[in-house]
Amino acid sequence: MDKVNIAELTEEQISFQLILHSGSARSKVIQALTEYRNENVEGADELLKEAKQDLRAAHDIHFQMVKKEAGGTQTPFSLLLMHAEDHLMSTVTMKDLVKELLELFKSRSL
């Protein structure tokens, strides 16, 4: 996955990149749970690894934004940005929860 350089994007494009990567991760997390339920443990594990990569891309964008603001360039607030940040954080929470659930299921042979 190519690294996104936010200096080349508009504020709206940055938000949509966050939504794109976190949305892709969210879909893979949900699919991982479905795969596990269908007894495809390896497939579930692979989907969680892929979700982690998508989240890494989103976190990189987020870090660039924080770094830019720490350098003195204010990030304009918008509802779209707030939605993108919310999307990212809820996906991180979902990934962590599903990962722990799958480990619990494995340990109890469920």
UniProtKB/TrEMBL annotation:
Transport listed as a keyword: yes
Chain positions with Phosphohistidine modification: H83
UniProt keyword list: Phosphotransferase system, Sugar transport, Transferase, Transport
Domain of life: Bacteria
CDD domains, per the entry: PTS_IIA_lac (cd00215)
InterPro entries: PTS_IIA_lac/cel, PTS_IIA_lac/cel_sf
Listed PANTHER family: PTS SYSTEM N,N'-DIACETYLCHITOBIOSE-SPECIFIC EIIA COMPONENT, PTS SYSTEM OLIGO-BETA-MANNOSIDE-SPECIFIC EIIA COMPONENT
Full protein name: PTS lactose/cellobiose transporter subunit IIA
Species in which this protein is naturally found: Paenibacillus ottowii
Phylogenetic classification of the source organism: Bacteria, Bacillati, Bacillota, Bacilli, Bacillales
